[in-house]
Amino acid sequence: MHDDQLLRYSRHILLDEIGIEGQERICAAHVLILGAGGLGAPAALYLAASGVGQITVIDDDVVDLTNLQRQIAHTTARIGQPKVDSLAQALADLNPEVQVRTIAQRADAALLDGLLAQGVTVVLDCCDNYRTRQMVNAACVRQRVPLVSGAAIRLDAQISVFDPRNTESPCYACLFDPEADFEEIQCSTLGVLAPLVGIVGSMQAAEALKLIVGTGRSLAGRLLLLDARTMEFSRMHTAKNPECRVCGSGAHTTHL
After folding, report:
1. Distance between CA 183 and CA 164 in Å, rounded?
2. pLDDT tens for residues 129-153?
3. How many C-beta atoms lie closer than 10 Å to residue 178's C-beta?
4. Helix or strand or coil: residue 233?
5. What backbone phi and psi angles, to 5 degrees, belong to 79?
6. What structural domains and CATH numbers belong to the chain?
7. Cβ contacts of 112 within 8 Å, gap of 6 or more
8. What is the rounded CA–CA span in Å between residue 215 and residue 17?
9. Reading across the β-sheet that carries 232-237, which strands appear in turn?
10. For residue 13, what pLDDT is reported?
């Protein structure tokens, strides 16, 4: 690292858990973020500030006035712009050293497999669509790339890590059946507390950095739940489903 990087990332370097070697891993990492909204915006900002070398963002939506209550990377002046372009501008303003790739389209299995095969270090699921969540989980299982999944609605949130590099780690489909007739719940109809998505997105960034550096214990095997009404966390231990359609003996080759 050059002198400016040593100064910019000095507060990381001072940490025994990161140090210079850990910061170099962060600078060499490639993070893929699905969604440039409430969760993706704070997660991307913290990852860029931390010096992640390459960030790829996928989102097919545009900035809307209703987004500005919680999607902190976007501004009033950028209403109508693709969210990925608005987020890329925010990341460039924060840390111009980070390479940002934007993909303004809806993710599909072929796109995800192609991106993950290019050396993605970790994936952040910051979307709000159940089928997309299942699709990105299946891609991460196929490509053996760790996945940090977060969700928030109303005053409730959850976050977990699914790490297919560990054969004992459950995947998202072990907890949530991909064949289930799941009713989508949108914040456009039920609402969401603005800072809650910031809390979860920041936690996703923290889990991603831990995975990149190889420090601490990730949330793999645990589902962390937050009730913002009382600001209390609860934790559920999760186990691999041996009959899982995606990662277990019941797995099939169909791309979700």
Report:
1. 27
2. 999 999 999 999 999 999 999 999 9
3. 20
4. strand
5. -60, 135
6. 3-237 (3.40.50.720)
7. 135, 136, 139
8. 6
9. 99-103, 54-58, 30-34, 122-125, 147-153, 156-162, 222-227, 232-237
10. 97
